Amino acid sequence: MAGMHPVVVLAGRQERSVRYCDGARSRGARVVLPGAASERLGALVRSLGDERRVVSVPVDLSSLPSVRLAAKEISANLRHVDALLNIAATFSAITAKPRRVSR
């Protein structure tokens, strides 16, 4: 559909969301940051700029009713969601000692 901006939901650790949020916004996307309602989340949204392009949705991921309520709020306020990124995992390089193979 012409003229529609992509919508990206970034679930996961808020401090890691900033990099992904900047990338999505630079491509014209609207960004939704679900998370525990807090001053920290509010400050993150404000620091990212335009409130029409970056919004937060309060959710407690340990509560299925809270997740359902957040999904309903997102559905009620946005026509579509193009991508859901769960960036909660942390990856690091694992170095192992070389094994000695006997023949």
Kindly list the characteristics that best describe this protein.
single chain, 103 residues, alpha/beta, Rossmann fold, 19% strand
How are the strands of the largest sheet arranged? 3-2-1-4
Share of β-strand residues: 15-25%
Number of helices: 3
- In oligomeric terms, what are we looking at? single chain
* Through-space gap between termini: 64 Å
CATH topology: Rossmann fold
**Level-2 CATH architecture:** 3-Layer(aba) Sandwich
Written as H for each helix and E for each strand, in order along the chain, the element string is EHEHEHE
Gyration radius from CA atoms, angstroms: 18 Å
Low-confidence stretches: none
Give the beta-strand count.
Answer: 4
Structural class: alpha/beta
Question: What report would you give on this structure?
Answer:
This protein has three helices and four strands. A four-stranded parallel sheet has the order 3-2-1-4, sandwiched between helices. It has one domain: NAD(P)-binding Rossmann-like Domain (Rossmann fold), CATH 3.40.50.720. α2 links the parallel β2 (30-35) and β3 (54-58). The chain is globular and about 65 Å long. It is of the alpha/beta class and 103 residues long. Helices cover 35% and strands 19% of the residues.
Task: Describe the structure in brief.
By secondary structure, the protein is of the alpha/beta class.
Summarize the helices and strands and which ones pair or pack.
Blueprint: E1 7-11, H1 14-26, E2 30-35, H2 39-47, E3 54-58, H3 64-77, E4 83-86
Parallel strand pairs: 1-2, 1-4, 2-3
